[in-house]
């Protein structure tokens, strides 16, 4: 589990093809890796991946073909939002995040409004029903609050700090982003539709 509060941005520095996926080498000088061991989970752009090797300020993770097919941002070198898995004693500053991406959205608008930025995203139609005004959503691993919803489109206000310390600053119209809906919404739907 994660909170959606990005601890650092790192860089996917090298990609090694595997038979069914990729092995990524991630450079993370800004992330405290002193308590990270092989087998631990770290979220990358909102995707939970397992550390398989660690050396200094870098580590390696494997990404399956299935994960690559339903996410964005892990198939090329570049910057990535990073968050270590929560411990039970950690402060939950965002919301409960699993690191399991539900779908990929498209950025319609990313523009400054005063000191902040407005981010408008079109969600895949099957996910739209889970997105609620003043509800939580995770975008590329960042826990955010939805301001407005119209059909499959929703908007978010990003404060300057969030823009400065995450990869969201690189978004533009046409960018694709990883979306994870609020965990509570999944369970409510299951309870409402499950047959006894």
Note the main attributes of this structure.
mainly beta; Elongation Factor Tu (Ef-tu), domain 3; 2 domains; six-stranded antiparallel β-barrel; 13% helix
A few lines on this structure:
With 196 residues, the protein is mostly beta strands. The protein contains 4 helices and 12 strands, in the order βββββαβββαβββαβα.
Strand order of the largest sheet: 1-2-5-4-3-6
- Order of SSEs, N→C? EEEEEHEEEHEEEHEH
Please state the overall shape, judged from the principal axes of the Cα atoms: globular
Rg to the nearest angstrom? 17 Å
Number of helices: 4
Number of strands: 12
Description:
- The chain has 196 residues and is mainly beta.
- It folds into 2 domains: 77 residues, Elongation Factor Tu (Ef-tu), domain 3 (Beta Barrel); 91 residues, Elongation Factor Tu (Ef-tu), domain 3.
- The protein is 13% helix and 45% strand.
- The chain has a 6-stranded antiparallel barrel with strand order 1-2-5-4-3-6. The chain has a 6-stranded antiparallel β-barrel with strand order 7-8-11-10-9-12.
- β3 and β4 form a beta hairpin.
- The longest helix is centred in the C-terminal third of the chain and has 11 residues.
- It starts with 7 loop residues before the first strand and ends with a helix.
- The model has no long low-confidence stretch (mean pLDDT 96).
List the SSEs and their pairings:
Blueprint: E1 8-18, E2 21-27, E3 41-44, E4 47-55, E5 58-64, H1 65-69, E6 78-84, E7 103-113, E8 116-122, H2 125-128, E9 136-139, E10 142-150, E11 153-158, H3 160-165, E12 176-181, H4 183-193
Antiparallel strand pairs: 1-2, 1-6, 2-5, 3-4, 3-6, 4-5, 7-8, 7-12, 8-11, 9-10, 9-12, 10-11
């Amino acid at each position: 589990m994660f909170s959606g509060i990005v601890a650092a941005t790192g860089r996917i520095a090298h990609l090694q093809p595997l038979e069914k996926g990729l092995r990524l080498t991630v450079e993370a000088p800004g992330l405290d890796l002193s308590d990270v061991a092989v087998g631990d989970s770290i979220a990358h752009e909102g995707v939970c991946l397992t550390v398989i090797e660690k050396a200094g300020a870098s580590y390696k993770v494997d990404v399956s073909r299935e994960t690559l097919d339903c996410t964005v941002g892990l198939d090329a070198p570049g910057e990535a939002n990073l968050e270590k898995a929560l411990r039970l004693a950690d402060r939950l500053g965002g919301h409960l995040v699993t690191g399991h991406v539900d779908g990929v959205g498209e950025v319609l608008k990313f523009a400054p409004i005063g000191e902040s930025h407005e981010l408008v995203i079109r969600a895949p139609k099957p996910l739209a029903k889970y997105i609620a005004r003043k509800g939580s959503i995770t975008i590329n691993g960042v826990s955010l609050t939805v301001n407005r919803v119209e059909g499959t489109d929703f908007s978010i206000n990003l404060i300057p700090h969030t823009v400065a310390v995450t990869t969201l600053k690189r978004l533009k119209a046409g960018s694709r982003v990883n979306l994870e809906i609020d965990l509570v919404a999944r369970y409510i739907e299951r309870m409402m539709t499950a047959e006894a």
